[in-house]
Structures are given as structure tokens and as C-alpha cells.
Write a structure and sequence with these properties.
Mean pLDDT: 82
Structural class: alpha+beta
Largest sheet: 6 strands, antiparallel, barrel
Strand order of the largest sheet: 4-5-6-9-8-7
Radius of gyration: 19 Å
Length: 408
């Protein structure tokens, strides 16, 4: 959420609130916003665009896999393919930071995401003050009472198989969000699609696509403590593998409006990632590997007709440490940040940064559980979360990603 941020190796308070927002359906992007200071965390909040190389970890020890079409795209932008693995991806110079939807590239660097790097990632932090939401012209219900987040009992795969973490690198450092495995209409039962927040893949109006985007389903499946994870193997941390994004799309609104402060773009803060395994999965898709995928409902009932929504994520800002999975269930209310933008869902929840992008599940139009939103923003005080209503823009993003890989 915008109040929630991805996490990184050196956490620092950025003040204010974090928020996240998203773009129209036709655009591919990755971005991170926070309404409060709860949604995402980053490794080095002090690092600027040009200084970010020092904040990021070294490249992986394995091979770099770059399909020919990505090599060509990198060359088009003056990027030396041979230097990418050895640290060229750390160049965040504004002039070289790919921003447009069609420019998304994400070469796989094997073993870049090792247990230490994953454990130390922080939530993207983008703050927003109360004054940013005080003058809304739309429909806003009274602020909900905080709902204490409950720990999901291990194994996470048994109790929340579709949940996981999205890791990525930004100018501020190594970061993390939450995400959900969703169904792919073009590949029933064999989806490789993941739903998260737009601010977890793209920096919005002031930046471009984040890099080294990867999804880890059932991260820390056995619920080990931070101390126990110090010596954990990659198989213990990522028992179902590391899945790299080979394509990402978000809303045009997020790319054009999304910001690091305030609520800009929050009503469109969603993204879909198509993934491929870092290493062999035995020919199985992500859905087959984890055994489940949620349908997405783009016609979810209005707030008065929804009895309860359940938000799931890996909160990383205190009092949480980002290593364990939590959930909040509450009857939603409405939040309007701008009269011209769609009204958002809002629930009481104490989850903090790192839970951004995590799925919200409710009874869909057919009465069965479905993903109806994702964590986008929340207050620094961590008492509530807000997520976008998924309408035509979100449906367009979803169908575009599915269609892009329909023949494969």
C-alpha cells in the first residue's frame, strides 16, 4: 500500500504516510507508492537515482539469461548486455531508466535472489500526510476501527497457497511487496500470472520500471523466525522456487500519475506480472507448482453488499519484520481520494509496509472466493488499509497480459 512499503536491507523512517497507485489497463509498468508508511520498504532510503548502485547488492553467482528480443531492446537503449549481470542494472540515471510500458525488460540473473538478499529486503516507502486526503469530494465512510492482523499458521502453502512475495530493486535499494497467484483465462489450470500493486513494479510519474522483479510463492513456508532464517537455505526460504517476471503491465494512470507521496494514482494501483521459473520447474506452471490460483472479479459487489474482505500480506515495518504471513478480515468501507477517481475499498487492519500488493479476497459475483482488490495505501499509524476497486482498467491490464502469452 502507499502507506505500506517494500522492505530493504537498511530500514529508515521516511515520515508521513505511504501510498500506492496504479495505471490504466493498456500500460505495462512497475511502481511503488505509499499512503502511509506501511506498504513497502527499501534498502537505502537515502540513496538517490544516480547513487543507487551502491545501495544494491552485487549480481548473482549464476548465469544471466536474456532472450534475444530482450537483448535487442537493451541494445536499442544503449545498454551493454555483457555488463548487465556485473552491475549495469544498478545505473538509475534518469536518462537511462526505462519508463514507458513497452520498454519493460527484466533479464534473469540466476541466484541474485539468495536467502540473505530476500530476508533483508524492505518495503517501498512513499509517504503521504493526512492533509493529502482531508479534502476529498467523493464518498468516504468513517475511518474504520483497527483490526489486529492475525498470523497465518504454517505451512503457508497449506493455508494460503496463492500468497507470496515480490522482490525488486529500486534506486532506494532492495525492496519487497506481497502478491497473489491468479488464474489465467488463456491457460486454465496452468497460470503463470501474479497480481500485485502498481507501485511494486513501477516508480510512477517521476521514474520508470523497477528491476530484477521476481515472485516467491509461500516465502518462508514453515514460518521461521528472523533469527532462524539467518542460516536458512534457499530451498527453505523459497520451497516452490523463484519466478522471474518476463512481462509486467499496470495502468496508464499509475505510470502518469503515481507518486511517492500523497494519494496520486491509488485508485489505479494494480499490476499483473507474468512469470517464468528461474530454474527448472519440471515443465509445471506456477499454478500447478503451488496447486492453486484465484479468479479475479472485476464486478465485485458494492461495499454495502460485502460482508467481509480478507487482506493477506507480509508486513515488514515495525512491529513486524517481513518474514511471516498475516491476514486481516473486516467489513469494508469506502474511501475517496479524488472526486474524479473511483472510490476505493477500506478496511481496518494493523499490517504495515511490505503488505503492499497483497490480495484482498471476498465472495465474487458468483458467490465464490475471488480476488477483488490489493493493498495500496494506509496510514503511518497502521490502523487501516485501502485498495482499488477493480474495474475496466484493471480488466484491460489482466486480459492484455493473458493475451500476450495465449499462444505459448
Amino acid at each position: 500500500m502507499r502507506s505500506i512499503r517494500p522492505s530493504s536491507s537498511t530500514r529508515a523512517s521516511r515520515g508521513g504516510r505511504r501510498r500506492t497507485s496504479s495505471l490504466p489497463a493498456a500500460v505495462a509498468l512497475v511502481s511503488a507508492l505509499v499512503l502511509t508508511a506501511t506498504a513497502c520498504e527499501s534498502g537505502d532510503p537515502e540513496a538517490g537515482g544516480d547513487a543507487s548502485a551502491s545501495a544494491a547488492a552485487d549480481g548473482g553467482n549464476g548465469e544471466i539469461r536474456i532472450p534475444d528480443h530482450i537483448k535487442d531492446k537493451l541494445k536499442e537503449h544503449g545498454i551493454d548486455v555483457d555488463e548487465w549481470k556485473n552491475g549495469a542494472w544498478k545505473n538509475w540515471n534518469k536518462d537511462d531508466w526505462l519508463r514507458e510500458a513497452q520498454d519493460f525488460v527484466n533479464p534473469i540473473i540466476e541466484d541474485l535472489w539468495d536467502p540473505d538478499r530476500m530476508r533483508d529486503a524492505e518495503e517501498p516507502d512513499q509517504g503521504v500526510d493526512e492533509s493529502d486526503i482531508s479534502g476529498d469530494q467523493g464518498v468516504t465512510d468513517p475511518e474504520p476501527q483497527p483490526v489486529e492482523a492475525k498470523a497465518v499458521p504454517p505451512s503457508y502453502h497449506e493455508n494460503a497457497a496463492t500468497a507470496g512475495k515480490v522482490f525488486f530493486d529500486s534506486p532506494q535499494g532492495t525492496m519487497v511487496c506481497s502478491a497473489t497467484v491468479v488464474q489465467d483465462p488463456a491457460h486454465p489450470g496452468k497460470s503463470n500470472m501474479v497480481w500485485t500493486a502498481g507501485h511494486c513494479v513501477h516508480a510512477g510519474k517521476q521514474g520508470g520500471w523497477y528491476r530484477n522483479i521476481a515472485f516467491v510463492p509461500s516465502y518462508n513456508d514453515s514460518g521461521k523466525s528472523t533469527a532462524e532464517l539467518e542460516g536458512a537455505t534457499k530451498e527453505e526460504v523459497a520451497p516452490f522456487g523463484v519466478w522471474w517476471g518476463d512481462w509486467v503491465q499496470t495502468s496508464d494512470q499509475w505510470i502518469e500519475q503515481g507518486g511517492s507521496t500523497g494519494g496520486d494514482g491509488a485508485s489505479y494501483d494494480f499490476a499483473v506480472i507474468h512469470v517464468t521459473p528461474e530454474k527448472g520447474s519440471g515443465g509445471k506452471s506456477l499454478e500447478e507448482t503451488v496447486g492453486s490460483a484465484l479468479p479475479v472479479d472485476f464486478k465485485a459487489p458494492a461495499v454495502p453488499q460485502i460482508e467481509s474482505m480478507t487482506a493477506t500480506g507480509y508486513p515488514a515495518a515495525p512491529p513486524y519484520d517481513g518474514q511471516k504471513l498475516f491476514q486481516c478480515a473486516d467489513k469494508p468501507g469506502r474511501l475517496s481520494l479524488n472526486a474524479s477517481d473511483p472510490t476505493m475499498y477500506r478496511i481496518g487492519c494493523t499490517m504495515t509496509g511490505g503488505s503492499s500488493g497483497g490480495g484482498w479476497v471476498a465472495e465474487g459475483a458468483d458467490g465464490k472466493p475471488a480476488l477483488v482488490s490489493n493493498t495500496s495505501i494506509g496510514p503511518v499509524t497502521a490502523g487501516w488499509l485501502a485498495g482499488p476497486r477493480l474495474g475496466e482498467e484493471a480488466k484491460g491490464v489482466y486480459e492484455a497480459v493473458s493475451g500476450k502469452f495465449a499462444g505459448q
